[in-house]
Structure formats: C-alpha cells, structure tokens
Design goal:
four-stranded antiparallel beta sheet; 11 helices
Length: about 300
C-alpha cells in the first residue's frame, strides 16, 4: 500500500478546492494544539510521579514520642545507634531541635521555642532497598532500642499525591486517544465530502482507466499534507505555551512542581505527534475513500 506524502502539481490542481488556506489545515492545527498540550501534561505528570517515587522510596522518619525530656533524649540516642547498626540503613541523621522549632513556628508561634514543650525527637533515615521486609527489620530494631519510637514512611505520606498524579497521566493519555479518534472522524467526513464534491471528476478519471486505489491516493495525499501542515502549526504554538508555563513553574520555586519538567524523550514524543497524526489521517482517508467508492461510485 502506498502512503505517499507529496502530491504532484497535477494532483493539487485536480483536488485543491480553495487555492489558499484550507479549513482542514486549521482544524488539524487546533486538534494537534490540544493534543500536544494534553500529551505534555501527561508526560510531565508521569515524570514528576517517577521523580517523587525515586525521592521518597526507602525514606523513613523516626519520631521519639516521649514526654520526659531525659528519656526522650536517651531513646533518641539509642534509636540512632540502632539505625546506624542496621545493614538495611544507608544513612541516619538526627534532626536538629532548633530546626524542628523553626518548622513548628507557623503553627505554634513563639511557644514553639518553650523548653518545657515536649517536641518529639526526630531522625531521618534512608534504606538501601525500599522493601516491606527491610522496613519491618528496621522497625523491629528501632522499637527494641526505643519503645516510644514511631516509624513513618515518606512514601505513605505522599501516596495520595502519587495516586492523583497517576490519575492525571491516565486522563491525559485518554485525551490523546480521544483526539486521535476525533481526527480520524474529521478526516473520514472530509474525504466523503470531497468525493461528493468531485464526483464528476472521479467519474471522468474512471472512464480514463483510473482505479479506485489511484483515486484514493489523490485524496490521501491532499489530506496528509493538510494534516501535517496544520499539525506542525498547532505543535509550534503548543510548544510555545508549554515553554511559557514551564517558566512560570520555575519561578514558583516549588520542588514538587519542578518535577513537571519534560525530558528529552518527552520532547521527541511531542515532536513526533504531527507525523503520527498525518499517518493516521492518511490511512483513515484511504479507507474512507475506498469504502465509499466501492459502494456508490
């Protein structure tokens, strides 16, 4: 099956209706603009979710919840020693008390610095392997040394955010597929309308010996060019919008939002969308024309 993308001058004169800007081109520009935006949202969210998983996997926070300061300090020291002695732990660092006071100040105000306020001692730990078995071993070792210890996995804190990011990624993928289906539907309607418009011309071509396949090639070439041109226009505009949004996100200074940036692979995928949609439009036009010619002409 031939899927030529370049039409000859004779083909363009035969089937080009407007001799100028074609409505099909601008329809495809809008379709690709929306598709590239949806795809960039999905790819960016997927990248951010992957980065979040990588950053949080195997990270633990140990809290020593003991109201008596002397006991709290003693259990914190024993818990830190137990963590550093556990092979599963690659890093264990006690969080400075002054830093905790600073973090609590927005909620507690100046009372956060009160020495009589029983602020839990905290230890940050990283695991070499982020498995449930490793977490269980570390938890058992810490609680044996410090009964008042409570172990929290960072991954569990952010699981709702991770689930939301996954939902956004799937939604973006569904939108891309929906836009692809809508593009195929528009192409089929345009091809059928073109057949009706050029019915007399096609009958003459048949009398001159042209086959249905040759006629279909005329339409698929024209539609492929319109789709590719419109897709490139829409993609360029969408890339400009994405770059502007990226600058705005970078200016916010949020670590979580910074993960929404696109990788080189993501940009390659976005650049390939106009070509993919042009191929899809070509195949849809060919099938629509051949089916219609077989039934009516």
């Amino acid at each position: 099956m031939s899927v030529a993308m370049i039409a000859s001058a004779a083909d363009r004169r035969l089937l080009d209706e407007s001799r100028g800007t074609r409505a099909m081109t601008w329809i495809m520009a809008i379709m690709l603009f929306l598709t590239v935006l949806a795809a960039s949202l999905g790819l960016g969210t997927l990248g951010a979710a992957t980065l979040l998983d990588r950053q949080l996997a195997g990270r633990l926070t140990v809290q020593i919840v003991e109201p008596v300061e002397a006991k709290r300090t003693d259990q914190a020291a024993r818990a830190l020693a137990a963590l550093r002695a556990t092979p599963d732990v690659t890093r264990a660092v006690a969080v400075d008390h002054a830093k905790l006071v600073t973090l609590l100040r927005p909620w507690l105000g100046p009372d956060g610095a009160d020495p009589d306020l029983p602020i839990p001692a905290m230890i940050d730990a990283d695991l070499g392997v982020a498995s449930d078995a490793a977490v269980a071993r570390v938890t058992a070792a810490v609680r044996a040394a410090a009964p008042a210890a409570r172990i929290d996995r960072h991954e569990s804190w952010m699981s709702p955010v991770r689930d939301f990011m996954g939902m956004v990624s799937w939604l973006a993928a569904a939108l891309v597929l929906l836009m692809a289906a809508a593009t195929a539907a528009v192409v089929i309607l345009a091809a059928r309308a073109g057949l009706e418009t050029h019915r007399d011309t096609i009958e003459v071509l048949h009398m001159l010996g042209s086959t249905d396949v040759q006629v279909a090639r005329l339409f698929q070439r024209r539609i492929a060019i319109d789709t590719l041109l419109g897709g490139m226009i829409g993609t360029v505009i969408a890339v400009g919008v994405i770059a502007l949004i990226g600058l705005q996100l970078a200016a916010l200074g949020s670590d979580l939002l910074a993960g929404l940036s696109l990788s080189v692979r993501d940009w390659i995928v976005l650049a390939a969308l106009p070509v993919a949609f042009a191929v899809l439009a070509t195949l849809a036009a060919r099938q629509a024309v051949l089916t219609t010619l077989g039934r009516y002409l």
